[in-house]
Amino acid sequence: MYLATSQVFDREMREKIDLHVARRGSGWRTVEAHLDLGAVLTELGEADVCLIDCATMWLSNHLLAENDLVEAQAALFSALRACKGEVVVVSNEVGQGIVPENALARRFREAQGRLNIALAAQADRVVHVVAGLPRTLKGDLQ
């Protein structure tokens, strides 16, 4: 299952999503969940595999909706712990660049870093991919 967190706000995003869907092919079942990933995760069985793409967009959705980030993250981690299937989470590293000049961007950067730390702490395996090259930070790459 491909658990998509992005939302379509304009033509450019629609085209990007359509390209992603075409590249995945017909073997993937796509479920769109912009805010509540738990409802989908709790339905997974032991044989299911779910790719969440991506935690960064999920966080952006909550931030822009002015939701309580601590509460949203707690609900996500509760669902991840209860999930019977295997879950792969894609997340972006946004803290390696310059410090943004505006408060919202700085708040997002900080929240994304904290989310990534929490995801890595709970994960069995963490792989950092740069320029298409994987670097295992935790666990085995098999």
Can you tell me about this structure?
This protein has 142 residues and is α/β, with parallel strands linked by helices. Helix content is 44%, strand content 19%. A hairpin with a 2-residue loop joins strand 5 and strand 6 (133-138). The chain is globular and about 45 Å long. It starts with a strand and ends with a strand. The model has no long low-confidence stretch (mean pLDDT 93).
Compile the SSE list and pairings.
Elements: E1 2-4, H1 11-24, E2 30-32, H2 38-41, E3 49-53, H3 55-64, H4 69-82, E4 86-90, H5 103-122, E5 126-130, E6 133-138
Parallel strand pairs: 1-2, 1-3, 3-4
Antiparallel strand pairs: 5-6
Helix pairs in contact: 3-5
